[in-house]
Amino acid sequence: MNGWLAILGQPATDDVDLTIGGLIVMTISVVLVLGLMIFCMGRILGEKRPTERHHTPLDIDTHDRD
Amino acid sequence: MSKSPELDLTKKEKWGSKIGVVLAVAGSAVGLGNFLRFPGQAVNNGGGAFMIPYIISFLVLGIPIAWCEWTMGRLGGRFGQNSAPGIMYAMWRRWPAKFVGAMTLLIPVVIYMYYVLLEAWCLDYCIEFAKGGFAQMFGSIASASNDHAAEVQAVVGATDTHWQTTFGMSEHGILFHEGGRTIWLVLICFLVNFLIIYQGVIRGIEFFCKWAMPLLILCAVIILLRVLTLPDITSGLGFMWNPQWEQLKNPQVWLAASGQIFFSLSVGFGLILCYSSYLHSNDDVVLTSLSASSTNEFCEVILAGLIVVPTAFLFLGAENASKGTFGLGFVTIPAIMHFMPLGSFFGAMWFGLLFLAAVTSSLSMLQPAIAFLEDAFGVQRRASVAILGVVTACGAALTMYFSKGILALDHTDFWCNLMMIIAATFQVLIFGWIIGATRGVKEMNRGADLHVPRFIAFVIRFITPTFLIVILAMWGYNNLPERISGMDPGRQGIAAERATYTQAIEEHFADAGLDAEAMASEVEELLGTEDQAVNTADLPAWLQETSEAAQEGRRAAAADASIARLVFLGILAFFVLLVVLSDVACRNRIGRMIDQSQRAGNGWET
Questions:
Q1: What would the pLDDT profile of B152-180 be if each residue is shown by its tens digit?
Q2: ipTM score assigned to the predicted complex
Q3: What does the alpha-carbon distance between residue B606 and residue B441 come to, in Å, rounded to a whole number?
Q4: Verdict on whether the full-model pTM lies above 0.80
Q5: Would you call B275 helix, strand, or coil by DSSP?
Q6: Cβ contact B302–A33 (<8 Å)
Q7: Which pLDDT does position B76 carry in this prediction?
Q8: How far apart are CA B20 and CA B168, in angstroms?
Q9: Cα–Cα dist B191/B189, whole Å
Q10: B14, B19, B241, B287: which to substitute to probe chain A, counting the most A Cβ within 10 Å?
Q11: A63: nearest CA in chain B?
Q12: In chain B, what are the domain boundaries?
């Protein structure tokens, strides 16, 4: 390996096998996936239930087309 | 011509809550593939570097296909359709839609026929760990072994033997002769699955998934916390996550990553089509789909990625941590539990969560066929459950009978995987080119909290189908020739016979110091050229002693090839039957429902 890839291949410390590259890839993967899930679940769970919505007269379709 | 009576479309079931549908779809996607297949694929295809093609595949393949399926499913639901043949026919009222619909319906039913066995085996392992069966087995090994390497070998050997016995891998039919326990467990799984399905979408699937998915995730998080607090776990994490960047030049790594995303998200085989058809017409498909996909990725990347391979490497070394799906799941993981503190507890918890994951996936495989029987022929729930129960029980019994070397399971899995890619390709093409990507994305954004950007239409129209076609071509090129040759009894018999003779020749000349080339020419001189049956009359006397074993091997290999052919023809016949049934239904009840929905002003609004 050459250049910056060589740096990513070095062990984080002398006595463990997880390299800096491994640590970065693992952390990015975990943060991305966890972030996406928390964002989506937050939107889903934070959404008001239909019964809690306040309907204005304009929201109510009377099916009157005349 | 007399006018057909109007069908009552108002009685169609709908999901009770948004979180319910998210957990049900995530439950359908989260299965053994997440917990067992992903870690093996990652570690054998570049470690951390695997995540680059994996994330790209998730963005251009997984998410767009899932959005297409969710949109088509919800739209199909507005036409009163809950099964793939009806939904595809509502999208495109031409004959190819019936083929795609039938194929999409076939895949989950056939997969269920072997998946229920895996479910039963997970339950079996969970019970064994809970009652201390494995601890007892390991206890006797530990006392007999002195050093760690020998202990690892003995424990892995014991779990391997247990796996082979549980799966009935030694000979066909053994599970029916000696596997009374397995039969009972399969029956229990059938009962659990069909009881839940019988309860319907809200009271059955949604209720179960709302409890099972959080419980599954909780169990996995507890195990993850235990794993991350093990001494020296960083070496295991390094083995799994250290990137081998040079692997990115290998096209097979990209194929493996896209295949993993494709199979893991459960796209392409009608589960999402079916589940999303129970949505209300203005329910958000964009966010719901993304939520289900992200939950699946959480289970796969974080839970499975940080638990399975790191622990296996830590306790059992690189060789045992790099096994395939079944080896990792049913040999390595049980062996890990011997070395882990509170192993029986964590073993029971791990296989319990796998069992829950398998049940949530099984339910999604059964619902499309139940929906088809009800939509297409007006069959009542009790009858549809009974019909599907009988059909899947026959398939599961055959898969269980032909258990030697998991032959039937392996071949069924292969053909289903192939059909999944074909079906997904057609679905995306129908969405992008028949419905029209722009029109489709407009429909996708209906009721959406997050709007899909316009460029997704371009991705769906060009990039995703191209990606799928490339995967199909490469996957077919890599696997099809071997599979087709595996169904030729003559060729397989000759290969097995030659293998037995070759082994005898190698043993005979073991002391002669021949190199590989010299040995190969010796084999060719004695047996003749490759692909040619061995003429036993010309063999020297010392080699003729092997004739009986060689003939036995030849007969067994030819029989296995015949079974492989039988599996293929069985799936083909089932497909033809479903095409005919879909055609009949589309001409009659399904067609009438779609017409009636259109007259009522449902369906397309654009």
A1: 888 899 999 999 998 888 889 998 888 68
A2: 0.88
A3: 11
A4: yes
A5: helix
A6: yes
A7: 94
A8: 38
A9: 5
A10: B241
A11: B601
A12: 31-485, 486-606
